[in-house]
Amino acid sequence: MMAATCTVLLQGGVCLFAFLAAISWFISARVNIPHFARAGEWGEEGVDAIPNALRAQARWSAFGAGAAGIAALLQTLALASSLG
């Protein structure tokens, strides 16, 4: 495969994974963390509502970080292939 074609494919991967990271972090930021006015006022969600919401937020954030890491790796490979 020609170096130029390889670089273009790698750059496409960078764009894809950077987009996935942005979307994942946006979803993570939009997770609804319940707010209770007083202690013991748990409502319909129950006592596990806050930990469950934080777990969901952490999963989306971890996925975003992984996608950003892959994007950085692909960018490094693209740069190396264009130099060599």
Write the topology of this structure.
Layout: H1 3-30, H2 49-83
Helix pairs in contact: 1-2
Protein model, in words:
This protein is an all-alpha fold and 84 residues long. It has one domain (3-31, 47-83). The chain is built from two helices and no strands. The chain is rod-shaped, with a radius of gyration of 20 Å. It starts with a helix and ends with a helix. The model has no long low-confidence stretch (mean pLDDT 88).
Low-confidence residue ranges: none
What string gives the helices and strands in order? Answer: HH
| Main sheet: strands, sense, barrel | none
Mean pLDDT: 88
- The tally of domains stands at 1
* Percent of sequence in beta strands: under 5%
Structural class: mainly alpha
Write down the overall geometry. rod-shaped
Helix proportion: over 70%
Distance between the termini: 13 Å
Radius of gyration: 20 Å
> Helix tally?
2
Q: Tell me the number of strands.
A: 0
Q: How would you describe the oligomerization state of the chains in this entry?
A: single chain
